[in-house]
Predict the 3D structure of the following.
Amino acid sequence: MQIYTPLSEPELHRVAKAGGPLRYCVTVPILKRIQDICFLLAALGLLLTGINCPAQIDPTDRHLLEVGYDQALAGHGPQAIYAYYYFNSPEFFGPDVALRVAVAPAYLDSEIGFKHLLSPSTDVGIGVSGGIYGENYYEVRQGNFLESQSFYGDGGGGSVAVYQLLDPGMLIPLNLVARGGFHYSTFLDTAETSSEFKLPKDQVEAFTLFGLRFAGIQPTLYPDLALELSAWFERQWHFDDGTYGFDNDRSITPYTDLYWFYANLDYKLKQSGDRFSFATTVGGSTDADRFSAWRLGGVLPLISEFPLVLPGYYYEELTVARFVHFYGSYSIPLDQLHRWEFRVEAATARLDYLPGFEQRGDWQTGAGCAISLTPREKNFQIVLRCGYGFNAIRHDKEGAQSVGILFQYDFNARKKAH
């Protein structure tokens, strides 16, 4: 899975594995809020004009530090944390060659982008990634984290991508994304892996990905303004398929098809400072196994391009073949300078579970709240949050809590201010 940005797409899912008192502001008249909403389409147009460049090589200079941590308060789940530095230089090797790098403590993902290489509207990217702990597998069933059946994974690979702008000259870009590549993975026991559990063979995987993306979202924490509609299809070939586990009770399929549709809108009301966000993802698969199935749960918004969050749940707690996922949030400022914000969020999903991972109900729902601080300089943002999973199973009962922290530091904030 790749980071969600309209312009470049590293495999951030793998990277991620490895002031004063509060003052409530004066209520803003409803008319002003309606006026804010009326400016939405115009504001989106201005934003998207800035990213309307050929294909999808990111034209923005970015230096971001991202940290996220989600801790379950009920039960014991997989480690849920990411920390990485995101660097993008649109003219690193001259005006037509860009470099994007995402660096985690034990993993690196990079892409060199060549603008207008095949045509004035066609860019090409060459990606290289690799490191340790990026392929870790966590077995979670019915709310139980089975450490005896979980293991470490290392690996790396390469890819070639073509980014084709389909509507040159239009206000909102429509891009065709095509990517192909390979990935190699090797697996190791953890201290808790059972001695009777047979690890999978080292895996060589090839993949192709095709997508249509209308507009797109920048790789930042809770953006003020964002819009995306996209549809995707991916095929994975597993060349070293076979059996593993206890007495070879599970297998890796020779190939898997994944397909999904994504829609997202983020907007900040200029007058009041209120923010709202809505996203829906519909996904499915054919011949999915434990490695290729969809995983939902937890609240780590920058851990993948299409984060399937469920507050209160473990990270990637639910394993499914098909799903419909809805997410919404609303935040209000707590002071006149809009530095402090209070945020509420909720997510729900209708699931078709992978065989062996069934739960009591087809719907899973979670909700949460958060307090965030963004200083006047906007060089960093810190979010303290909590969540409750209404249907998460803990000790044979439904209901679970989690707390977490999100942090983003923008090294370019002062430059942007000037």
In short: The chain has four helices and 21 strands. The two ends are 35 Å apart (CA to CA). The chain has one domain: 12-417.
